[in-house]
Design a protein that fits this description.
With 373 residues, the protein is of the alpha+beta class. Helices cover 29% and strands 18% of the residues. The chain has 6 helices and 14 strands.
Length: 373
């Protein structure tokens, strides 16, 4: 094929050769059997043609051996294709433990990316060569699909939930990025580039745009701006549970169900706080849907992750204070206010749920017990 009109895109990731080999095998098998069928049709049409109008063909009662052969061979081929395809699928779906994290948001009609270090991009994604990259995707409006032909990966970005994909680029270069799901009138213009750089060049690029701080720092700033800090005190003495060291932990709901405080749970709690109510707390948190963008939600999640991992490592979490004191902008509750158990994490952005009573069994302040207030 001419250089400017290649039959296949570049093989620029570790999974590309596996996908291409499987694809080539499927195409080859298809061509082989199509050719075999047409050849047999021609042979049978010639050999068993009717030679005269009064010819009576001999009866054919079939062959059990032949029927077994043409049933078993396709079965074995199909099972082999299934096992091979499943192996490639699992390789694509299993994200390596050492993968670097990038967050992507699809929006009519652009791709927006955030790096944990704080770098943000639109319709362009910079990554290092030779390192696995995990991308967490969501959408602000309709279904989009993250498609990089050179990497042989495609993953839908869905509104209201998170999906993930990963790749490991093998050589530096600039590769096409498309939306492979029809998403509106300008769908064809929703394209961008993935720029693969040498590791040293990538580190230089990463450190060259540190304005605004990391995702966690932006999340902490948003956490304070939304007033979440007034309820979610780090020592658990506020009206809502502490979010320190809560990410990845088990959460008990008022229904008795237990779930893990992961990305999806935090996102749902910010945008739909009454969907899952933590045990021993009331559903009084207002929704922040329409006030916090998907990028903002990802920043809040990054902040909660950071104060969880840092506490686990024995260091102070950003924006937290020693037990018994409030975060900046928070009011210090009276002694004994709240249960402070910390077992019922609520989302950032306000009181995901507050304690049912104040000291002495008195009712909470006006408006506190009303859902959505």
């Amino acid at each position: 094929m001419p250089k400017d009109f290649p039959l296949m895109p570049d093989q620029a990731s570790t999974i590309s050769s596996e996908v291409d080999l499987l694809y080539a095998f499927l195409v080859g098998m298809t061509l082989f059997f199509v050719g075999l069928i047409f050849l047999m049709v021609a042979i049978f049409a010639i050999r068993y043609r009717r030679r005269s109008s009064d010819e009576i063909p001999r009866p054919n009662f079939g062959s059990l051996r032949l029927e077994i052969v043409w049933s078993v061979i396709p079965l074995l081929i199909s099972v082999g294709i299934f096992i091979w395809s499943a192996s490639v699928f699992f390789d694509i779906q299993r994200v390596p433990a050492n993968a670097m994290q990038v967050y992507g948001v699809g929006k009519q009609w652009m791709w927006k990316f955030q790096h944990p270090e704080g770098n943000r991009e639109i319709n362009e994604l910079h990554v290092p060569a030779g390192r696995p990259v995990k991308i967490t995707l969501t959408s602000e409006d309709v279904i989009h699909s993250f498609f990089v032909p050179a990497f042989r990966i495609k993953q839908d970005a869905l509104p209201g939930r998170y999906t993930t994909t990963w790749f490991q680029a093998t050589k530096p270069g600039t590769y096409h990025l498309f939306c492979a799901e029809y998403c509106g009138t300008q769908h064809s213009g929703m394209r961008g580039s993935v720029v693969v750089m040498e590791p040293a060049q990538y580190e230089a690029w990463l450190s060259g745009d540190a304005s605004g701080g990391s995702m966690a720092a932006r999340g902490e700033k948003l956490f304070n701006q939304l007033g979440c800090v007034t309820c979610h005190l780090p020592d658990g003495s506020g009206r809502c549970p502490s979010l320190v060291n809560v990410y990845g932990k088990s959460v008990k709901l008022i229904t008795g169900e237990e779930l893990v405080a992961n990305d999806e749970y935090i996102r749902e709690s910010v945008l739909h706080p009454n969907a899952k109510i933590v045990d021993a707390y009331q559903p009084i948190m207002p929704t922040y849907q329409g006030q916090v963008s998907e990028e903002g939600v990802l920043q809040l999640i990054a902040y909660i992750k950071s104060i969880s991992s840092q506490v686990t490592e024995g260091t102070a979490a950003p924006g937290t204070t020693t037990p018994g004191t409030a975060l900046p902008g928070a009011t210090t509750p009276g002694a004994g206010t709240g249960t402070g158990t910390g077992t019922g994490p609520t989302p950032p952005g306000g009181a995901g749920s507050t304690n049912q009573s104040t000291p002495g069994g008195a009712s909470a302040p006006n408006g506190i017990n009303r859902s959505g207030q």
